[in-house]
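Methods — Computational structure assignment.
A single polypeptide chain was analysed. Its primary sequence is given first, followed by the predicted tertiary structure written as structure tokens.
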Amino acid sequence: MGIVIGGTTRLMGVIGDPIVQARTPGAINPIFAAMGADIVCVPLHVPAADLATCWAGLKAMPNLVGFGITLPHKQAALALCDSLDPLAERVGAVNLVRREADGSFRGYQFDGAGFLRGLTQAGIAVEGRSCLMIGAGGAAVAIAFALAEAGASDITVANRTNAKADALADKVNTALRRAVLRAGPPEPAPGQLVINATSLGLQESDALPLDPEALHPGMTVAEVIAQPEVTALLRAAEARGVAVHSGMRMIEGQVSAIAEHLAERRG
């Protein structure tokens, strides 16, 4: 079934700044159509300085069922939600807001589950594997929880601000009551799963998040960036014979669950 838009069509937005890189609309609209859900997803450019103003406008639109959230709004959205799902509260970041039956906006978190599902679907094992994650923002926290709960042997978090990496490690270790994460330098070890959870790679002019000379066969380099689907980091890794995993797999891993979440009857 194709996508048909009419007066009864409800809207899902995806907000970010910038937003040109958003791949969720293209991935989720065919799912809505296949489900027979009269919902269409569109990208919405919401500048960081105008988040609260735009949020109020979104809330005033009765046919908006919810919206996905990408950089840089995932943590700022916490304070704007009327309520938070326990996972979003624990992670400290929101990547989906749903209008509930009473009209309130509730924040949810699908980043970690989507990233892990994408790895699983690609046959990339996490259990017992050492991981290096670059970045400590909203998506990174969700991914760290997912990797730790999936049985990663250890996770090193490297971030431009070391205190933020320490805080992420403490947050996850305290919640899980075991020492799995630690802050460290962006220096991959043999056989690691290496994850770029920063925004570096959105622009061709961006610096690489780590020295590609440190990458060697046996490692896997994974991205959270879906546009471009093959980032400069992934190209550099492939050139050195390293297995790569596109950020598009994370989008694919979470869109079905998000579509079902938004389309289900409430109230």
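Note: Helices lie at 24-35, 51-59, 86-91, 111-121, 138-149, 162-176, 232-239, 248-263.
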